[in-house]
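does this look right to u?? beta-D-fucopyranose version
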Amino acid sequence: MTTLQFPDGFLWGTATAAHQVEGGNDNNDWWAWEQIPGRIKNGDSSAVACDWWRGEKYRADFDLARALHQNAHRLSIEWSRIEPRENEWDADAFAFYRRVLTALRERGLTPLVTLHHFANPLWLRARGAWETDAVVPLFERFATRVAQELGDLCDFWITINEPMVYTYTGYVNAKWPPGKSDFGLAMRVLTNVLRGHAAAYRALHRVQPHARVGLAHNMLAFKPARPESALNRVIVRVQDYAYNRVFLLALQDGRLRFPMGSGDVREAIGTQDFIGLNYYFARRIAVDFSQPGSLFGRALPAQPWGVPYDDELLEWFGKGDIDPDAFYRTIKWLAGYGKDKPIYICENGICDRNDELRARYLITHLVALQRAIQEGAPVKGYFYWTLVDNFEWIEGYTLRFGLLANDRATQTRTPKPSAAIYARIARENALVNEPMSQ
Ligand code: FCB
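got this back:
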């Protein structure tokens, strides 16, 4: 019997985001986006989602999470509910999140709370959202209020989810709100995101000196299509730098160095107590001089992972290879970057309608993670994306990342077979490979 052990106290959880599960919110920019015909696949709506808001279905979901031996959960708090209009604070929304966080704690699930997971209140959108630095004190005030009201229930925070994804999809490829395509503006947005993070980091620590605060960074593992080509390797390094490192390095030295310009954000230095990593796939890059916008690299179609991909898998993993080894390398790089700072895997998962590949995805990625930990990477927890099939942004309900299936007509949850496999790993705090019975 082989056992790959995880460290004592390791967090095993899943991650969710408010707008993807709550439903019942017509006050943020994602709701507005959804009103534009053609923006969301199949015209799907977030009106009900997983019914956490009106139906308080989070209780049933957390019951299942506990039954599945999880001991942590990452979720987000909607700014548009807490502050529905500028400087108006909603007592009912605070009461809702008190119930949610209490429900987690009662079930022995440690909460990790994200303050900004893609969505912005409509009033903030009207003021330009992250396009101007007016957002910085506004986000700081929001963080302060949340810590004051809910700090007795949580001390483990992510300020902002995936700065690069937020900026790229909203301001470069224009697929997400506000649907702009403007590099200069994108650099400004990313700069304000970094400033907002730094201000929120300090605000959380002012209210709660013992708070642990970080960001969830999306990282893509870039690899050359032709490793023997020096030019291909250089282009991969440039892409890796531009996507994965610009923001992380600025958190260390206070300087955002974009490939086409740079700027100081001194206040960002040292504003991470831990490093949050969201990792899904690796990307194979070929040299392509016709693509200056993507720094002369072109992403090649994914190499399928064993089985032919259906539409759902293609939609997500058609953009990148499932590659557990690249996950291992990414963690090793982060461990070197962060020195002894704890690392949390804040998202990792697969959309897999028939649950055919999920167990294999989970196990291979956890083997890679355990290997990195064995070699000294200070990873303290893993949050599978996601607990229950939910509203997957512009993909609507077509991408199913959940461990639990959701019958949306009845809001009934059914654990998928892979949920039991994850449960066993969480219960043992180990990957246990038993010999096949005779
Ligand atoms: C991440 C997002 C999360 C979800 C997963 C599939 O980039 O943070 O909300 O969309 O991808």
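The first strand starts at residue 2 and ends at 5. idk if thats expected tbh
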